[in-house]
Each structure stands twice: as structure tokens, then as C-alpha cells.
Automatic annotation (TrEMBL):
<dbReference type="GO" id="GO:0016787">
    <property type="term" value="F:hydrolase activity"/>
</dbReference>
<feature type="domain" description="Amidase">
    <location>
        <begin position="78"/>
        <end position="529"/>
    </location>
</feature>
<feature type="active site" description="Charge relay system">
    <location>
        <position position="134"/>
    </location>
</feature>
<feature type="active site" description="Acyl-ester intermediate">
    <location>
        <position position="233"/>
    </location>
</feature>
<dbReference type="InterPro" id="IPR023631">
    <property type="entry name" value="Amidase_dom"/>
</dbReference>
<protein>
    <recommendedName>
        <fullName>Amidase domain-containing protein</fullName>
    </recommendedName>
</protein>
<dbReference type="InterPro" id="IPR036928">
    <property type="entry name" value="AS_sf"/>
</dbReference>
<feature type="active site" description="Charge relay system">
    <location>
        <position position="209"/>
    </location>
</feature>
<dbReference type="Pfam" id="PF01425">
    <property type="entry name" value="Amidase"/>
</dbReference>
<comment type="similarity">
    <text>Belongs to the amidase family.</text>
</comment>
<keyword id="KW-0378">Hydrolase</keyword>
Amino acid sequence: MTATWQETAAAYQAALKAKIPPEWLLPQDFLSGGKPRNIMPLFKTCGVLTSHELDITEVEDAVTLLEKLHSRTWSAVEVTVAFCKRAAVAQQLINCLMDIDFSGAIQRAKELDEHLATKGELVGPLHGMPVSLKDLTHVKGMKYTLGMVALADEVSGHDAVVVQTLRAAGAVIYCKTTMPQTGMALETTTNLYGRTLNPFNTDLVSGGSSGGEGALNGCLGAPIGVATDIGGSIRAPASFNGLYGIRPTSRRFSYLGNAPFTGQTAILSSIGPVGRSLRDIEMMLRVWNNHEPWLYDPVVMTKKWATDVPVPAKATIGVMFWDEVVMPHPPVQRALKMAVDKLNQAGHEVIEFKPYKHKDAWDLAFKQYYPTGGKEIKATLARAGEEPIPSVAKFLARARQLTVEELLQCATEQRQYQIEYLNHWRATSSQTSTGKPIDALLTPSMASASFPHDYLPWWGYLAQWNLLDYPSVILPVSHVQLSDVKDTTYQPVNELDQETYDLYDPALFEGAPISLQLVGRSLCEEELLAVAMAVDRAIKA
């Protein structure tokens, strides 16, 4: 007799829990008084991690962690065990993992320690560092499901190019993280493994589709993670969980070996890291590039990583306060205005950037996300008899299969829009003191700091840059405060704007991280990161 999707999901969740060592399980009475909205303090009080393991997992960033590992201050085993334990606790609190290989990771760490002890050399630049990866990234011997019940038993038979790179560099792979059903949602929830929560405010989402990466890294359960992005899936989770992250140009690094949800090629998915600092982000991209991914993936551009790009003392930065579609919530506006003030104080040049047809861009992107009307998605859901989650259901209801002629028209419109936007960007040269276009563009990452469960938000601040294929970086700036009161004088300009306006309540969003997005030009990741470092320093000053 064929199992129901509910039975399959229950078995999946039970098997996942069984992979957590019994001594790492939280006491049954630990949350007897209920789970707080902010679960971050619970890692210190749960009794699973020692004080030394807390020190390891709460290290400043991955670069600092690698310094400790490579100097033999900390062994690969003690670091791996610490992060395995913190990830196990995180899973029990916010449900961010979809597969676990703690025992394999500890064995790998032992081998790395032995190699360093006997040969006196590192396996590679990431020697001993645990790394988390998203559900859809193929890791040999581990599961991949795309958040769909019909794929619950799928096990990868090979490593993605990025995983090959990580292993060659000496990294330790210990877990895979959750993603939403199908991957096309900014909230991570599925019928298969449930809902992932935001560690800073469990009433809010952790983002999607790399929501497990965002939540795990946000609660310091990983030193760095690998995510993917076709419409905001690196940037929303980074933004909602107070992380740094980058969505690189799609052809800069290898996506090969990450399971796609569709075969469309108009808007390619990107792979990128989320982490605790910009130097972590730069370090990871440099390691990936040094592996020469163009030798393994024909889509990747042959372009060596530039290590000589200076952090500018005076950058020229455009600022887009809103996209003229959906007005950001008060705390996002506060963060953006604060950043502009700090940049001016630091001596950078800031000019206002007027948005260019952003609603048209979203409409064009959406059509190309679902060129078959979601036929393959619907068929995969039907195989297990499961229903789409609310946000996916709303998208599928809007999706329409395109004819060949319509696909060609979309391609023509996309190319024309890319030309027009480039000209719009270049035209900023008439506003700058240098007579050159802006170095980067500072924008909201989303209209809100996060959003409540089962809500479908406006994606335009994110998907815009996928359509254009511009790299973009997420910078943590602040947190929502009760003093970020609603603007009762604002008059929304359309239905989407009204929905977003009605959603805001400072009490609901209190404590949620607020982040901003810095956008650069295609294939200019090094230059974008250099400007991002200048912006980050100014904000923190």
C-alpha cells in the first residue's frame, strides 16, 4: 500500500531526528514554559554546549576560525563537534536542517587533524572548517528533496562542483539545510519537513529559498554557508537573519550540481555564500575561483579573481529610497537614511538614484520563472498527493504556460530592458563629481525586515537584479525597534503597496534584523565587495 504524504513526511522527520545523538537532545522540560520569540539566548542555557564550544561557535567570523584552526589553537575535531552540537540544538528550536552527517563530519575532521599532525601542512585554505549547504546542492550520499514529498527518498550520487571545491580546500560538510517546497518562495516551509523559523523572532520567516541556511548561520550554527539565488534566495535569508551575503553574477561561479526547479535559461540561478563578515564572503569566493570552475562547468566565465582591488576612500554611491512600487517599512527607511548620513560623514559621495520601470521588470521576470505554467511542479506535487504551500499556490494560480512566440518576446523585452537599465545607470555620470557613473547602488533589500508566516511579499527589490544579472551584497545595519512607529500619513500608491503598509506593526517585527542591499555591475564582484567594505565600515563607525 502506498504511503500518504503525511506518513512519508512523518517518517522523514523521525529519521532526521534519529540522526541527532541522544546526548544532544534538549531535555523534554526545557521548553515547558513555551518557546521565546528570540531563541538566541537558549544556546547558552540548554546545557548541550560547553563554554568552550560556545566560544568556538560564537567566534567573530570564519576567517578568525580558520586562523585558530591553522595555528592548531583549535583542532578540526573540537570545532566540528562544536558546530554539530549547535546545529543539532538549532534544529530542535527552529527546524533548519533537512539532512545530517555528524558522524561523517567528525571522521573527516579526525583525518584532517591527523594530516596536519603527520605532514605539517594544510589540505587547503579551508582546512578543518565546517560548511553547511542547502537542500538542492548535491552532496554525495546525502538527501536532496527540493522540499517536496515525492523526492523524500532521493539521495545524491555525486558532488556538485562547489562541493568538490570545498572538499579539495579542506572543508568539513556536516549538514544540509531546509528550503521551501519547489524553491520558489521567500518563506521556508514544506509539507515534508515543516516550517523553519527566524531565530531572532519566531513569529517571522527566516526567508527563502535558502531559509535554512539563513536560520542556521543566523543563530551561529555554522561558520559559513552556501546558498543559491534565482529571485532573492540568498539575499532574503541573509537580510532576515542579520548576515552578510552575496548574489554573484550568474556565470561567475559554478551552479552545476544544484538541482534546478526548471530548465528555463532566461534568468539563471547564482550560487553564493552567507556569513558573518564581508571578508568571509570575499574569502569564500576567492577559494571557489581559485579552483577554476570554468574547467568543470561550461557556463562559468573564465575570469581570475582580482586580489588587488582597493577599498575606496571615497566611493560614489547611488541610493534608491524606494522602487516606486512598494514603500519600505519605517525601520527599513530609518536604516537607509542612517546609512546615507554615515556615508556622507565618512566623505563618500551619495546621489539619489531614480528607479527605472521596476514593476515592469517584475512582471517580465515572473513570466519567465514559470514558462510552462508550473506544469512540472504540479506533476511532482501530485505524485505524492501533497498540496502546494500557500505562497506556491498563489504563484501557481498566476502562472501561465507561454507559447514559443511569447518566450521569444520575453527574451527580446529582457534584452531591451537590460540595455535601457545600463543606460540609466550610466546616466548617473551627469550627477557625480567624478563625471563617471556611480560605483554601486544602495537600496532596501526588502520592503520589510521580514514578514509573518504564510504571507506572499513583494519580491521586486530582489528579483530586479536577477533579471539584470547584477551582483548584489547584503549588509546588516540595525534591528527593528518599537520606536519605529507606523507612518499614519502615508497613502499607498497601489494594492501591493497597501498590503505591505497594512502588514506593518512594530510590535510584530520587534527585534528583527534590518539589512540593506548594495548592487554592482555584472561580473564586477571584486569591485562591489570593495565598495561594500567601505560602506560597511562607514555604517559601523
